Structures are given as C-alpha cells and as structure tokens.
Amino acid sequence: MPDGSGKKDIKALLPDELAADFQALGLPGYRAGQVFRWLDRGVRAFDEMSDLPKGLRERLDGLYAIPSLTMLRRQVSAKDGTEKYLWALPDGESVETVLMRYKHGSTVCISSQVGCRMGCAFCASTIGGKVRDLTASEMLDEVLRTGLAAGERVDGIVLMGIGEPLDNFDNVLRFLRLVNAPDGANIGMRHISLSTCGLVEAIDKLAALHLQLTLSVSLHAPDDETRARLMPVNAAYGVDALYAACERYFHTTGRRVSFEYAMVRDVNDTPRHADMLIRRLRGTGSHVNLIRLNYVSERGLLPSPEQTVRAFADRLSAGGVTVTVRRRLGSDIDAACGQLRRGRMREP
Ligand code: SF4
After folding, report:
1. How much is the pTM?
2. Is the CB of 115 under 6 A from ligand 1?
3. Is residue 96 annotated as part of the catalytic site, yes or no?
4. I want to staple 249 with a disulfide (CB 3.0 to 4.6 A). Which of 94, 207, 298, 325 is the partner?
5. Which domains does the chain have, with CATH numbers?
6. Would residue 194 be called left, alpha or beta, if left means φ above 0 and alpha means ψ between -120 and 50 degrees?
7. Mean per-residue pLDDT of the chain
8. Is 113 in the pocket of ligand 1 (CB under 6 A)?
9. How far apart are CA 223 and CA 240, in angstroms?
10. Residue 347's pLDDT is what?
C-alpha cells in the first residue's frame, strides 16, 4: 500500500501487520501498540508521537506515510445537531461524512468511494461517475477526524455515504477490521451497518465472512420494472436474485437483512407497490426503512408527499411487514449524500 511518495500507508496496517513490520525492523514488541494508539488519536506526523525516541520517529518517517484528511467545510443543522463534513483527501479529491446524533449515541455515515458508478436515478453522488476507491485508512480517517472535530466518541458507523461499499470490497473489509480493533476505535461489528445497492456475488462473499454487522439493502422498488427505472444495477441482478441472496445471507450469518426504500413520488409509492412488497417480505422478519427522497436538483425526481409515505407505511404494517419511517436528520443542511461534494465541484 505505498502512497505517491513510495512510502507504505501505516494507517492501513492491521495491528498484527504493524507488529510483524516492526519485528522485521528489529523494534521491540511494544512499539507497534504504541504507534497504533497514536494513529488512533489522529496524529498527522511521526513527530507528534512524543513518547517515541527522535531517532525512531525519523526512521519511521522515512518508511511510512500517515495519509490524513483535511476539513474543507462543516455544516451543523440548527434543527437536530446533525453535522456534515466535506473532507479533502491527500490527492485533492473530496468526500463527505455525516455525524448523526441519536439517543443511544453518535453514528457516523461515511463514504467509501469518490463518486459512484452505480448510476441510481435519485442520487447526486453518481453524477460524475466513480473517480476512485477510498483506501481503508481514508475511511478510518473519516471516522477519527469526524469524532475529533465534533469532540465526541463515535458509537456507530453506517457505510451509506458516497459510493457502493461492496464495489470496494477489499478496502472496506480492511477498514472494518481496523475500526473494530480493540487498540483502535474499537467499534463493535453490531454497531456497524453496511448499505449496498445489491451486488449479489459480493453479498455472498460478505456472508461467508460471518461478520456480525447489519447488511442494509437499498431496494427502493419491489419489482424489476420499477427498480430498473431507478437503479441500473437491476439489469445485472434482478429482484428475484437479490431476494435470494438476502435469504442466503440470513441463513449463513443469522443476521436479517434490512431494506431501504426511498419514496419517489408516483414512481414506487403506490398501494400496488406496497402490496408487491408485502408479498415478497411477509413472514421473512425483514425490516423496511422508508425514507422520503431527498430532492436533488439535477435528478428531477420528487419526494413522495408525507401522507403518501404514512399511508404506504400503514399498508405494509397491516400486511405484516415491520416498517419504520426514517426521521430526516439534517434537512436544513445539504443532507442528501453527494450534494456537498457536488456543490464544491460547481464552484469556480
Ligand atoms: S445510491 Fe449509493 S449505490 Fe446508488 S449511485 Fe448513489 S452512492 Fe451509488
């Protein structure tokens, strides 16, 4: 994992990999833990690791890079305290992170790619396509720097920002292991939720790892015809294949998949759609999260009226499907994922 300077990205190394590296360098065993903890505190340079001898700091600086994010913009919702950050990556690209406050603690929604190639019709993040994958250490830095900037501990993570996490599988998996490390952020898998637009092979690959995270599938329509209008990925994996993969995921991991459903006016919000969803999900124990679409000016799709969302939820509930209408956090700031980054791209 060398960066542009040819140095190895030290923040992408798992504790045992760092220990093996340091052993090969002839360093005493405790040094790896010491450095790992410094990295978790967000230091940007080896010189800040004040309990390391100067000679060692210089030696490490010659071998390793500490890639770090720099804050470009921060918006705080006056309504509910949700915070949205725009970060510059070391190569000048940018990504967004959102900190949401709940009664049970703070959750950070991170991006996993710069842009996205999935082309969902309602999404601002995909307008310029995918630029590149984020590295594991960049994702980790989203969590660390957001916690530091907000001055609070991060209790949970959702991979639901810019990008399709399963399209960046290896880096995301490494990130999950890093953020889960007891000497690091130490965030338990049960406090992590990963959202996918439905890449079936990758869902199976993830299931085989038996992680105890929550898999959240962006369904957005119960049938191929409607889903194909909203999500090009449906051409590769139709809803039958996707539902089957979700079943396999449950049987392999014991963790039920939850479904995200963005309500788009006159597209997927009719009683007919609710009934199709009921036929698919009744009796499976799966949970549906309804979200009112965030309006994105470039995309031309409108959010369903509130009473339509409520009626849809009531119909699902009466049909035996558990459903939650998601609260819209940060509705007074650029809340939909990709909008802050788009705003920056439009700037002269
Ligand atoms: S909704 Fe998610 S998967 Fe779809 S284009 Fe946007 S970022 Fe990509």
Report:
1. 0.93
2. no
3. yes
4. 207
5. 8-65 (1.10.150.530), 70-346 (3.20.20.70)
6. beta
7. 92
8. no
9. 9
10. 47
